[in-house]
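Student: Please help interpret what follows.
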Amino acid sequence: MSDFIADYFDVTGPAYVVSTACSSSGRVFLSAKRLLRSGLADAVIVGGADTLCNLTLNGFFGLDSVSSGLCKPFSDERDGINIGEAAAFMLLSLERPDAPEAIALLGAGDSSDAHHISAPHPEGLGAEVAMRNALADAGLAAADIAYVNAHGTSTPLNDAMESKAIFRVLGENVPVSSTKPLTGHTLAPQAPLKPPFAGTSSATAFHCQSPSTSSHGILRLPQSAWQHAGSH
């Protein structure tokens, strides 16, 4: 996919794919930051794409992770995920755009607890590390976060561990939700899919999780973010 995008936009420089399951498109933001800060790139196209296929569906059915109906993240009645498909990309640069309310990536963090091949740590230790790394990278405190768009897959294990991690890092007052009922679990492109759902000029956090890896980003979004996203 990276070669196709480079050819399509006629761009040069490093082009590669990050494959860490559901946290892939979160981790590409960290890769882009390193490329920009090292001077290896002037701008970086980041994102991901995933399509519905029997391999994916059969895999989640085999894990007994698919919901019997519409998924219900963080609900007592949650019973699994809905699988979706999507493609989403963003352009990152160190240059400040002319628009006064441009989206900004304030910080990002990741971790790899290698707890289990198909399950995250039950206490969310890897997720907690990723969140704290993102806050440190952004130079922000927990009180600065206005909203968290959580991974929220609606599986009993993920939502339980993620709730614990968010509570330990951000406390009990920050609003938290998951947009999985609207998009399904789109796997690779889920990180760049999250920002349009947060129409706020405050710092908004998104979290992506795979069984053994976590990625967490903090964005500043303009009030008009959702209107712009819906008009193109």
Observations:
- The beta strands are 43-50, 86-93, 104-112, 145-149, 176-177, 203-209, 213-220.
